[in-house]
Amino acid sequence: MPRLDEDPFLTPPILTGGRPMSANKTRDWRSVRPVLHAEKCTGCMLCWKFCPEACVSVQGERPLIHLDWCKGCAICVAECPAGALTLAEEEAP
Amino acid sequence: MKVRLSIPEPEGLSAGHLACQGCGATLAMRYALKGLGPDTVLVIPACCWTILAGPAPLLSTGVNVVHSPFPCAAAVAAGVRHGLLARGKASTCVVAWAGDGGTFDIGLQALSGAAERGEDILYVCYDNEAYMNTGIQRSGGTPAGAWTMTTPEGSALPKKDLDAIVEAHHPAYLATATPAYAEDMVRKFKKARGLTGFRFIRVLAPCPPGWKYEPEETVRLSRLAVQTGLFPLYEREGGAFRLNVPVAKRRPVTEFLSRQGRFRRLGADGETALQARVDAAWAALPGRT
Amino acid sequence: MRKALMGNNAAAAAVKLARVEVVSAYPITPQTQVVEALADMKASGEFPGRFVRVESEHSAMACLVGAAQAGARTFTATSSQGLAYMHEMLHWASGARLPIVMADVNRALGAPWILWTDQTDSLSQRDTGWLQFYCSTNQEILDSLLIAYRAAEALLLPVMVNYDGFTLSHTYEPVDVPAQEAVDRFLPPLNYQYALDLANPRAFSALPKPKEYMRLRRRMAADMDRATVTVAAIEDEFARAFGRRYAAVEPYRTDDAETLLVVSGAPASTALEAVDRLRAEGLRAGSLRIRQFRPFPAAVLRAYAGRERRFVVVDRNFSMGHHGIFCEELKSALYGVKGRPKVFGTVAGLGGGDITVELLEEIWRDADAGRLDEREPLWMEDAR
Questions:
Q1: How far is C195 from chain B (nearest CA, A)?
Q2: CATH 3.40.50.970 in chain C, residues?
Q3: What is the dihedral angle through the alpha carbons of C187, C193, C197, C199, rounded to the nearest 10 degrees?
Q4: In angstroms, how far apart are the furthest CA atoms of chain A?
Q5: Nearest to residue C8, comparing CAs of C244, C201, C169?
């Protein structure tokens, strides 16, 4: 079995965290994903504003949903006043 | 061409955090960081945000986080502030960021001490109305009638009026906020950041698993809480009270209650009683001046 | 400069000399004068540090955790119930590796209410990861606090300096208060390498994996283990700078002694007198004062075992269901030593009862004659 008595001083006294959490992809949390219908989008950016994942970015006049992190909460779909977002089922892996 | 955004575009919050789908407390942090900016230290006691800030060595806030035991976020934050001042760093905003358990209940003594001493910190309570991190148990912030794991028949007791308790300490600033009103929230954090002395913001943070609703409803419920008059958005700076969202025609509380599983046992009588309490509290609001 | 100071004033003088940046404290008998003295010094401008009048001991330590994390040198003082109330934060301070220094004015714990000294308050905190020193004179209180900052900042472990309530805290003794320049040479400003860095955002004390937690604890244990050597080196330096020498274990007339009184705190001074009286009768008496309780100086104590020597421990503290705490620690340290030295345990002076020269002489005679039972602690009542 591994032992910890050889050189404990190789371990720092504290462990700090500074690496951005975005290293953690949360895409496999979702069962549905938002689909943007660009022709209906008015660029109001409510989907960007209300995203709890901070995974929608502003690309000129349009939102871009980064699906690597989207957990499929569907707030963006519920809040879109133009009906430009719909939900699509994710396939089982 | 670029659209005009109603809140600042730069993000402090990282994607990839571990919050449940549709988490209101996460939206609250996202807006808070937009208002506070990078020269901020967060002190976080035991609460959902202990986890959401990231397991070591990850960090989701983009600003320093000092984790703290449950009862003492306000005292640790005061200490950080004194330590930074002793080291000549006066510009940093030190923020205690606690849930309702860490504020209404176990953290109340340290909160009261820091508030009464006028510590130069911003204390934020993200109020999701129960002990959510431990799996939905009743707190002093749980409203009457709400189901939790420790009030399976619905809580018999009314929610503690924390704002009144904090007001009694004469804070430099006191405000309420909720994610549906993102602009209002960002403005309040920015404003609080620019003031000195003890500042307090209570954020109503809808919680899909704790309130038993679908995640997509978070912003809608947050908006309904304001529009029904259950959660008035106001601020008090120095002596001046200001209602930020007047709500000319309040919606019936049942619109807010019926969308959540936690109020299923409240019944028609309970709803009527709650409506009467909300009406009375709303009528008394100008009296808070 | 030589002054007549009460123990509590000696502690406050040390805080000022150490250029502490943040003090956070809550009053409790018999520590109160430390807080009052610091408040006076703050009001007069003599103490330029920040003084936070918190609403509880729990918040006192919580405030220091925050201030120390920001990189400030910190201090608090407490006693008894106050220390017990801080317990959660003591673990947090050491786990976060914050070099906080605290004075605990030893006072017994309730119920029932009790104001006077014993050591059960601080010894109940033995597993919290703090170094612990027990002082026997007011001079030692001042000196130990200065040594404590050097040790805490070298090891990144918090240090508790303990002294007897009333017996030392409220009693005047001559104390040499060193010059500020001499203290500044001995104790440079704190440069805490894990302080909050606003340009480099990090999380402190965030959730690790069990394997990482285990490694952090192993590192802490290793740092605690090396503390005896580190503190000894700091005490040497202190002796060179100020002419006063301290050690983890202080022997008195032990060379040919057959039975050793083992004592700590103020009664250790009384034990010197008892040993002298016994020696005057031609008896081979000696004493050991244990000044450093954490880390427990087991190797140092083992060097005094052997040659059929007997140890008799006088504990002003008790672990219910077992023994006096110094006694059980000594037994564990000597386990496996060749010839199995005899260790007797006595309990005396709980709740502030006097531990007199006569009482110590009696204890020594009983142990020397083999009249005590090694397996059971003997409870000695104050004769008066």
A1: 10
A2: 2-242
A3: 120
A4: 65
A5: C169
C363 Cβ neighbours under 8 A, 6+ residues apart = C261, C312, C314, C346, C348, C380
For residue C90, pLDDT over 70 is answered with: yes
Mention the CATH class of domain B24-288.
alpha beta
**Domain range C249-380, its CATH number among 3.30.450.40, 3.40.50.920, 3.40.50.1820, 3.40.1350.10:** 3.40.50.920
Phi-psi region of A48 (alpha: psi -120 to 50; beta: other; left: phi over 0): alpha
pLDDT of residue C340: 82
- Is B1's pLDDT higher than 60? no
From A54's Cα to the closest Cα of chain C, the distance in A is 19
Domains recognised in chain A with CATH numbers? 31-93 (3.30.70.20)
Q: What is the pLDDT of residues C127-182, one digit of tens each?
A: 999 999 999 999 999 999 999 999 999 999 999 999 999 999 999 999 999 999 99
Residue spans per domain, chain B: 24-288
Dist CA B125 CA B122 (whole Å): 10
pLDDT exceeds cutoff 60 at B131: yes
CB pairs under 8 A between A and C: 45
Q: Are the CB atoms for C65 and C96 separated by under 8 Å?
A: yes
Question: Average pLDDT in the B173-192 region?
Answer: 98
Residue C291 near chain A (CB below 8 Å): no
- Give me the DSSP letters along C55-116: SSHHHHHHHHHHHHHTT--EEEEE-HHHHHHHHHHHHHHHHTT---EEEEEE-PPPSSP--S
Interval B31-54 mean pLDDT: 98
pLDDT surpasses 60 at B289: no
Q: In this complex, which of C206, C215, C220 lies closest to A17 when CB atoms are compared?
A: C206
User: Is residue C328 scored above 80 in pLDDT?
Assistant: yes
Which residue reads 């989207």 in tokens?
A70
Please report, in angstroms and rounded to a whole number, the separation of the first and last CA atoms in chain C.
39
Q: Encode pLDDT of C40-78 as tens digits.
A: 999 999 999 999 999 999 999 999 999 999 999 999 999
Amino acid at residue number C356: T
Chain C positions touching A12 (Cβ under 8 A) are 219
Phi, psi angle pair for B285, to nearest 5°: -55, -50
The answer to whether residues B225 and B204 touch, using CB atoms and an 8 Å cutoff, is: yes
Distance CA C243, CA C237 (A): 9
Restricting to C residues 175-214, those with a Cβ less than 8 Å away from any Cβ of B are: 195-198, 201-209, 212
pLDDT at A9: 84
Q: Name which residue leads in pLDDT, B272 or A3.
A: B272
pLDDT at C384: 58
Structure confidence at residue A7 as a pLDDT band (50, 70, 90) = confident
The pTM of the whole model exceeds 0.95: yes
pLDDT tens digits, one per residue of A27-54: 999 999 999 999 999 999 999 999 999 9
What separation in angstroms does the CA of C139 have from each of B135, C69, C299, C366? 54, 30, 27, 33
A34: its two tokens: 């938002």
- How far A13 CA lies from chain B's nearest CA (Å)? 14
Query: Looking at beta carbons, which residues of chain A come within 8 Å of C96?
Result: 14
Q: What is the architecture of the domain spanning C2-242? A: 3-Layer(aba) Sandwich (3.40)
> What does residue A78 show for φ and ψ, rounded to 5 degrees?
-65, -35
Chain C residues touching residue A4 (CB < 8 angstroms) = 214-215, 218
**In degrees rounded to 5, what are phi and psi of residue C12?**
-65, -40
Beta-bridge partner residues of C98: none
Say if residues C7 and C140 touch (Cβ distance below 8 Å): no
